[in-house]
Amino acid sequence: MPNHWLQDNFHPFIIYALIGSFLAYILVLFVIKKLQIENPRTRSQLMLLPLVIPAFTSMARVFEVAPRCFLLNINSGSQSLDSMLQGLCTASNAMAILVTPLFFLAFAFAFIRVAMGFTTSHRLIRKFGFATLATQSRIIESAQNLAYKGKIEIPQIVVTPYLFGQAFTFGYRKPVIVLSQGLIDNLDDEELEAVLAHELAHIIRKDAILNWIAVFLRDLMFFAPVTYWVYNYFADENEKASDDITLQLTDKPLAFAAALIKVWKLSPKSLWSRLMWNNFSPNPGLVKKAGTLQIRVERVMNQVDHLRQPSVGWVAGGIVTSVTGVLFLVC
Predict the structure, then answer these.
(1) Domain ranges (residues) in the chain
(2) What's the whole-model pTM score?
(3) What is the pLDDT of residue 67?
């Protein structure tokens, strides 16, 4: 691969991922704390920025929207500053040469992950088919009532015969909810209604596509540790935002809290099962991490009212503009 291609395209991306994602992450946390933003929907939207900005800036560089290495073509008058910038680009170019093979492997893995998630989900449809009112009246009737309250079309539902607890949603234009028989058998009517409401909340929020985008960008920037912190924060806030919608649809916090606990107890515990479902399924579980279970249950029982979303579009625009400007100037 020609060295000039690395220097012109890939080594800026490494800088953008390492510096840009970290800088955007710090700015987002500062804004959340300074403005006292407690709405999880707003938090999750802002936390997408550290993942999106490096990719956005890199594409702008590739298509020559911005000049290349602007400061390196200017004599700043400060030998130490010029040396620092030159050293930064030299180091990033060297790192690009080392990371490039791993980057393309990561790109292939990210693509395979998305493809396998898509095929796995649709294989469930082909294998088990859609639930009907005749076969699963308890589920279908509850989903109909909840969809009416949420003002969305009734999604298709697939029931798998697995004995462990499983509930997730996939699809964007025609979303599908997947529930396991083990989950259905162990939840009472109100708890099952809460689980269905939570999955409908993901559909209302368009979480399936946003989650795949976030996972894909995280995998591409595997060499930037901060992207894993960002994704975990993003995923946790998404779940809280869906919890809030669940309470809006059902107004049964006790049943939902009990459902969260039961789903966690019923979730797959083997390393292989958790590895496969967590990596190749698009929103694999209602409760993914033990550490967040207590926090979510406490929020649900306290019925925290963070449903009003403040207008933070100008804040997001300011973060994008400031971080992108810094990255363009650095390299």
Answers:
(1) 3-330
(2) 0.81
(3) 47
